[in-house]
Amino acid sequence: MSGQKRPWPAWPDRAWEPGSPKAARLSPEPGPCRRTDPGAILSDVERLCDHSPQQLLPFLLQHDHQLGQVMDSPGLSPAQVYTLLRALKAAVESAGDREQLQPVLALALQPAFALRSLLGFIAELETFQAQEGWISQAVMEDTVAALHHLLTACPEQTRTLLCHPVDLLFAAVQRLRSRGFQFTWIIQKRLHDTKRLADAAFPRHSEPPATPAWREDFHAIPVFPTPEELFVGAGPGLQRNRPVGPFESATAYLDTHFRLLREDFVRPLREGISAHFSLPSVFGGAGRPRGQLRLYRHVQLVKAGTSPAGAVYLARLPRGAAPASSKRLLSGSLTCLISDDCAQVLFGTVVGGSQQEPPRGAVWLDVRANHRDLLRRHLGRTSFTMVESPAFFESYQHVLEGLQEMDPARVPFRRYVVQCRTSILPPAHLGDHAAFDLSGLRPPQPPGDTAEGPGSAGDLRAVSPGDSHVWAPETFPHLDESQILAIRMALSREFVLIQGPPGTGKTFLGLQLVQILLRSRAEWGRDQSPLLVVCYTNHALDQFMEGILRFQPSGVVRIGGRSRSDKMATCSLRTLRRQQLPRLLGAAEKQQFGSVLKALRKRKKSITYCAAVLELLRRGILSDAELAAEMHDDHLEHSWRAGRCDMLGWLKIDPAPRKLPQPQGRARKAGPEEPWQSHRDERALDDEDDVGPAERWQSLAEEKFAYVVPAEGSSGHEWTRKCLEEGDIMTDEDLAHVRDVGELRLRDRWRLYRRWMLAYERALTEKLAEKMQEYETQAAQLAELTFQEDLRVLERSQVIGMTTTGAAKYRKLLQKVQPHTVIVEEAAEILEAHVLTSLTPACKHLILIGDHQQLRPKPADYTLEKKFFLGISLFERMINNQVPYVQLLYQHRMRPEISQLLVPLFYKRLEDHAAVADCEPIKGVGSSVFFVQHTAAESRSADSESYSNRFEASFLASLSRYLLHQGYAASQLTVLTPYHGQVLKIRGLMKSSGMGDVAVHAVDDFQGEENDIVLLSLVRSNREGRIGFLRDKNRLCVALSRARKGFYCVGNLAGIAAGSTSQLWKEILQLLQGKKLVGEGLTLVCQNHPETKTVVKENSDFSKVPDGGCALRCQTRLECGHPCPRRCHPHDRDHSLHVCQLPCPTLCELNHRCPRKCHEPCQPCSVAVEKVIPKCGHSQTVPCHLPADRWVCQEPCRQLLECEHPCRRSCGEPCSRSKCVEMVDVTLPCSHGTRTECYRQKTPLKCLETCKQELECGHHCGGSCFECVQGRLHAHCRNKCTRVLLCSHQCQEACFENCPPCKRKCPNTCRHSRCDKTCGEICFPCVQPCSWKCRHYRCTRPCSETCSRPRCDEPCQKSLTCSHPCAGLCGEPCPPKCRTCHRGELQEIFFGTEDEPDARFVLLEDCGHILEVQGLDRWMDGEPEGTEAQHVQLKLCPKCATPIQHNTRYNNVIKGIQQKIKDIKLRIQGSREELEAGKQQLLLRLSSDRDLVAWAGMEGRIASAASRQSLLDLENTLNFLASLSRLKQQAKTCTAARERNLRRQIEAVESWLSRNRHAFTAQQRRECRSEIKRLSYLGNIFERLSGYEGRSAEIGPGARALANEAVGLLQQQAPFTQRQEESLRWLLEEIEEQLPAAGLRLSEAERVMITEAMQFGRGHWYRCPQGHLYTIGECGRPMQQSSCPECGAAIGGQAHTLTAGNTADDHILAPATPEPRLQDSILALLSHPPGSASLCPSGPPPWAPSPHPQPDSLPGPHPQPDSVPPRAPGPHPQPDSPPGSHTQPDSPPPPVPSPHPDSPQTPSSHPQPDSPPPQAPSPFPDSPQVPSPHPQPDSPPPQAPSPFPDSPQVPSPHPQPDSPPPQAPSPFPDSPQVPSPHPQPDSPPPRVPGPHPQPDSPPPQTPSPFPDSPQAPSPQPQPQPDSPPPRVPGPHPQLDSPPPLAPGPHPDSLPSPQPQPQPDSPPPRAPRPPPQLVSPAFPPHSPPAPSGIDLAMLLPALGNRRPRTRVQARARQGPYFLRQPAARRGKRR
Predict the structure, then answer these.
(1) Which of the residues 673, 1124, 1525, 1814 has an alpha carbon 20 to 30 A from that of 982?
(2) Widest CA span of the chain, in angstroms?
(3) Which 3 state secondary structure label does DSSP give 950?
């Protein structure tokens, strides 16, 4: 019923009409048009009312005659009367004056119309346009408005004519309401206003009916207002407060104050709404003022949320409607929400939070209504007009509730507050003989004064109020008589009134009383209840409580969190609750609180999440999964799935912006909103106000939507937003005809979606309402528990402080605590009801401190304050009723000139204390007190009723600046004014003048405050003599008494005194005139020139004293010599703060003047002058201060550079620093040419020539020559990969050997859920029950498992929409094609059986094709023709090749393939445990190798590895890097040139590795191994040549030629191939013969000579903790400490004791043994014992297993369709993988034993690529060999054997699962062996295999070259001939894998056959029982090679040069090999 006008009904009495209404039209001609057809005229009137109301009045005036005939006719129908009323309303509202409207009014006032037609229309209201108990709102509004306008326009017709229709309408509405008809409150309000106008015409009018809220018992009146109260007044139930005299009873007392206080906040809201929504008085002048109503239109409740107290709603204000004032929408304010149709009126309070503010332009509301009704009807739908009450509701709510809960029989101090008795009783809880400790009142005694008298401190510890001799000024000399009397009365009476005029020390006296009562508590022993202190504002409470903390630092509790004091933060109830409760609560209580809090938080999260989803419904498209239930209810689920619909595609929504055409006209541009936050009232509370739902659930809620329209600011999505918000929904009738959702039109699709969305919204709303109700129940439980906790804290306190609002809110706590004594400060400013609710029945002692002659309480309604005496406080009412009180008589604040303004006008007696008599006069002003008279007019603010005065504001701003110039601080000034409008104006002027620190306050906000100088602005100045607030004597008393030293007032005192009705201002003006303290100008006196005076009358006069002095010049000579340019200034007389702004007088040598200011430091003269440069003779423009010889000549240089190119620098710049930038052609080492700058020729250049070589993938290499390292190491292929992956998707990545996992969205879905992972990840299995069922079978397993039922071949029994039987099968989706209607399509031959009569068909849901079931069964179950094995890939549709993923008939086939795909994914990726183990192993290796630690980023890449392939690539990278690192160490042993050459090539490989990001193809791995092999050969040759050159040994020409030929072969710009390696063999053999390694060793004679020359015996050589050698002379034993020159470690020792970590090395001069040959050290040092015929590395036999299968031999993560199912590659072999497929997971880096028990091992410096690390020769003849420190790529590092022949071998720190645990050997060769800690049953001792192990024969031991060293048997069994190849240990041990064997060579070069024992080698020795264990990594078939020592190692001891040798390089590697194994051995022990 929105008021839309309808055409007339066909009434029977319209037969008199001459023509049809359709023939009536407006006359197109101008001028009057005489109509004779009444029906046509009314049709025109109705049309004008609907479309052109502005043309209605001229039309009525032109057709007044015809209208008169129509209105006089007796047969008007109700529709015709309503049309005339509409016309009358519109004409009156558009009329300019009454004279113009007179003809129309005369027509309406015809008796025939008013008394017949109008009354008949009102009588027919019940049936006219009524529907379902509603009268049309538009009809009622137009009718009431028309009558209201007639009453205001023609009041003289009220008594005779208009009263009858008004009375009838009022009675009819009352009758209809009693029958159940509903009328909006605005209709009822306007009807009451109209009735009141009619009743006003009669002498005895009836009273308006009382509102239903006014009942007999005030306990039944609701605290919150009701909608009826918005248009009905308070009624006769409102009684006045009684300033004088008692109340009839306590009930009447409570009733009066309850009703007055409630009306105080309801009346401003009622009057504001009434003024806004009332009908305008068209001809009544200005009418009533609209009031200070705060309106916000178009407000919507958009979201539900939670607060600690309950559920709340977010009200969103329209754009730009955020309140501009900081006092708008305060937390706790009352708001009224009126719907736009006025049908709903809701009330709520603003909920603010200290932790989370509401969004900008919104506010949280606690709405008092049913949650279910709010969510269903209003949330996001209804638009409201929000009205904010001017009264702060929170301060009313708790007090009103406290008054209702108060028992009239137990009103505190009823004897005085109700009965007004004047005899005061003593405190009942103290007894008649109470004694008080008054020792705190005595001032501190002087140190030497120990005399005790009657008033001594000892006598004051127990003083009774009756001891008159003690209560004397002699006892308390610092107190005056009135203060002593007040303290005595406060302690002796139960009801105390203490009046304190300004400055008399009310707060001081209150603190003294608190101190006395606290000191006396211990003496009484019976009253241990806490003391309650109550103040009106938080600021006053903070000040009072801070004073208490000075003498009572503990036991003080401040309730209410709105404190701004840092000192009170530790005393707040919230802080104490957090600190004390852990000690006070028991375990059960803590558990109960925790469980309730946890449940509440869980419910809050649920509500927040549901609210976020509900909010997004209006701008989001729900996904089809979310609407599945709604689709199921509408039986459209199968149709949706069969059509494979996507919600966005189905609704034709493109996520890209879709714009609508812009409407014509100017679009309103929305500007940026100012940030706004809710504020709080000074009396507000906040302990429970940290509310505001978090927005973090927004992203979670968006997951339910397929698409969310962006915020309202974007205009590109208006089409989608419009479709969501507008349009109808599909009905049930339309839904019955829907068969296929895909065939619906777009409009019908949106209708259907809106139907689903509304059903979804209803279900979500119901769920949310239940959760909100449960939340409020749980919140109440939590509040009760919190109440008990707070009670525990308060019971242990001694002083409780709170505001009156807080006391009312926490009244139940106070009733439990029962404070006996209550002190109320500023009691005269608090409403009586507030004081009353602060008291409990247990209160026995009330002390009220205040001054009723200062500010009174401030009610919100002025009428209630003045006429109902609501502004009379309890303090003032008691004094008016002659209750005894004490007045303090001595003021300690104001100087006498100020205090004389108060006596006797305000106080009969007020004396000045002696301390104020000596106040210094105000500097710069002739008088310390003065009133400035002016006549400038006031102005009124446009948006409020406040006043301001521009003259006074500018005058006080200038006066403030003048006082600041006198030396006063801004904190010493305060500007006061009675009006807030003037406050804003003065603050604006202060900020614009740079005086923002000066305080500006309203007088009402400054009570209780004071300052040195106060400036007062009176504001009011008008001809009418209206003075407003200045009439209030109390407010004026406050304004005149705030200053201590100076007081200045500006105002129109004469006008105010003349206009004031009282004598106060007249007396004040007479007093000022008598003392000459008033005048038109203020006299200013210069401090520097006292005889100079300046009178200022207005703002412009202050320009005469610009600097605060006078108009004279200062002229004081400054330190710089200049005179002070300022005017006379009293401030800064010594000019210490003055900055001279005159020009600097300094001149340079050439008389150039300094251009800077005088106060600025002079800079060197920068004037440009011509000078001749002596070096070149050029003339240059040079700065004056700069000498010519220091100037850089800027002329172009004419010299040539070394390259013969001209120098491009300036003449003065040296050419040697110039870089030639001429472009030249350069031929690079790779033979390619490039063009670059000349100076870059000497630097390594990057060749950018494209490689273009064909890769193994078939594509041409796209890398540059530099990136491919001259074609030796190719970059990745950059072509697009086109292979089909395992998931049937096409690979989207670049061409690579193994395609990465598919990154597309996973297509795996079922009827229950969908997988949201990527396609390459493993899906979670669906655990819902399988939905495949039919009439015959049903699956009982979970959805993800193989179905337990067979396929059903029975025909489907359903019928299609065409009524023909379905051609499908039972339980399967029905094919949409009919065998009869679509015969040709359905029987198209494909499999060959489609045309059979009994053929059945299956619908493929993925593509929609329909296929015959027998042929499709064969296709799905069988193998494709011509293939040997089926691919691991989803079956495809035989027609369109679409993967078949969803078809219940073939569930088992599809699930089987998906399971295989899952298994392959798992093999490729590896389990989480395997990946973690591999990562830990790689990280362990990375941390143990100091050379690899420096490789940045490896830790992160290892940690982020997600598959086995990634770990394998990273392992390869580490191996490559380790080999290169060892090559770098080898390069250090070469000459400088060779080192640079080798390092340059090594760094090129490292750069290539970093660019490839640790992922390699098989070709790249082979190329990298070949390159490292090439560098290793090159490094060996360089090292051999450098060793001979360093020793000055002769190298023959033939040897050098061979070496050069070998180096040339190795440095060719081509990949190092096998053919080149074969060509290198004979060269290496020749080099080995001509340059043997033995030539670098010491001979026996040399060794003896060195020993004799050093005169050292054995034991004088030592090793540092890092393995570096050093020697100690003299006795050879350590006597002092030093540091190692190599590594800085501590060496030596004290008192013949070595420093920890140092070891003696007695074998350093042992006889040398031969080193391995040159060609043996290249690849297979461990594989070929000395004397072997093999000189170069060779490949392994074909049967040897590879320890590291290459990834290129394994299938990728996505096998191709024509490939077999892949096995998972990577570092984790599967149980069914072939042996030796990869290394084991948990094998650590090998522990390398040291040559001494505490010394590090010496590794080899010859890295060998692609081969297991060789053992390095030991420098000691009796120690076994150490493995090579150069681990090869793709091979695990071997373990090193023990360095001592007699010591047992160290077993592997990671024994394999199936191998028996080794026995721990003894560290001494002759000691018995310790048995294994884990002996295995029946396990024989391990055997040592020989070169040719035979089955079942004991293998021989490996021969040793040393006769005295026992052989160590190998713990590893050798593979037998008929056994499968053994697995090679890796970093990840498998549970079923055998013990690891010795590592073999690299995968590309297999190991050679094991060599036979040499003839000259010693025979093998029998093993010594018990057998000793050898490290598994030690090759059992390779004997240790002889070792030697270099001569250069001993040169430092002989004083010669110190070349870096291999031994030193080996020593530096020691810590790397010892770090990890030592830690593991220690851990095992």
Answers:
(1) 673
(2) 153
(3) helix
**Whether the Cβ atoms of residue 1521 and residue 1495 lie closer than 8 Å to each other:** yes
Q: What pLDDT score was predicted for residue 254? A: 94
- The residue type at 1440: C
User: What are 1059's two structure tokens?
Assistant: 């206009």
Burial annotation 200-229 (CB, 10 A radius, 16+ → b, else e): ebeeeeeeeeebebbeeebeebebbbbbbb
Q: Using the Cα atoms of residue 709, residue 713, residue 719 and residue 724 in order, give the sign of their dihedral.
A: positive
Return the structure tokens found at 93. Answer: 């509202």
Looking at the DSSP bridge assignments, the partners of residue 345 are 338
Task: List the one residue out of 1122, 1083, 1087, 1079 whose CA is nearest residue 1107.
Answer: 1087
Confidence at residue 1656, expressed as pLDDT on a 0 to 100 scale: 44
User: Which amino acid, 597?
Assistant: L
**227-231, 315-319, 545-549, 1125-1129: least confident range:** 227-231
Alpha carbon dihedral 1759, 1762, 1767, 1769, in 10-degree steps, equals: -50
| Interatomic CA distance for residues 271 and 1677, integer angstroms | 108
DSSP characters for 645-663?
--HHHHTT--SS--PPPPP
Full-model pTM: 0.56
Residue with tokens 């440095």: 1611
- The model's confidence at residue 497, banded by pLDDT at 50, 70 and 90, is very high
Residue 2017's Cβ-count burial label (10 Å; 0-12, 13-18, 19+) is: buried
Round to whole Å and give the CA distance between 1397 and 1169.
115
| 1970 residue type, one letter | P
Q: How far are the Cα atoms of 107, 1440, 1455, 1506, 1513 from residue 1466, in angstroms, in the given order?
A: 94, 30, 16, 11, 18
Per-residue pLDDT of 62-93, as tens digits, reads 888 888 888 888 878 888 888 888 888 888 88
- What are φ and ψ of residue 1336, in 5° steps? -105, -35
Most trustworthy range by pLDDT among 187-196, 639-648, 842-851: 842-851
Is 256 in contact with 239 (CB distance < 8 Å)?
yes
The DSSP code sequence of 1575-1639 is HHHHHHHHHHHHHHHHTT----HHHHHHHHHHHHHHT-SS---HHHHHHHHHHHHHHHHHS-GGG
The neighbour count for residue 1078, using CB atoms within 10 Å, is 20
Q: Give the per-residue pLDDT at 962.
A: 94
For the residues of 1820-1877, what is the DSSP string, one character each? STTSPPEEPS-PPTTSPPPPPPPS-TTSPPPPPSS--TTSPPPPPPPSSTTSPPPPPS
What's the length of the chain?
2029
Determine phi and psi for 312, rounding to 5 degrees: -135, 170
Question: Does the N-terminal peptide bond of residue 904 adopt cis geometry, omega within 30 degrees of 0?
Answer: yes
Angle CA 221–224–229, to nearest 5: 75
| Residue range 1757-1815, pLDDT digits in tens | 343 333 333 333 343 434 343 333 333 333 334 433 333 434 333 333 343 334 434 33
Phi, then psi, of 1557 in degrees rounded to 5: 55, 40
Residue 1355, phi then psi, degrees to nearest 5: -65, 155
Spatial distance between the Cα atoms of 229 and 188, rounded to a whole number of angstroms: 11
Residue 324 has pLDDT above 90, yes or no: no
Write down the pLDDT at residue 1496: 60
Selection from 1097, 872, 910, 734 nearest residue 261 by Cα: 872
* Omega of the bond leading into 318 within 30 degrees of 0 (cis): no
Q: Are 2011 and 1816 in contact (CB under 8 A)?
A: no
Least confident of 399-408, 759-768, 1913-1922, 1998-2007: 1998-2007
Distance CA 1669, CA 1705 (A): 8
Compute the average pLDDT of residues 765-771.
Answer: 91
The number of angstroms, rounded, from the C-alpha of 1015 to the middle of its chain's C-alpha atoms is 47
Of 851-855, 997-1001, 1192-1196, 1997-2001, where does mean pLDDT reach its minimum?
1997-2001
| Cα separation, 1052 vs 1057, whole angstroms | 9
What does the alpha-carbon distance between residue 741 and residue 756 come to, in Å, rounded to a whole number?
A: 13
Tokens coding 48: 């004008």
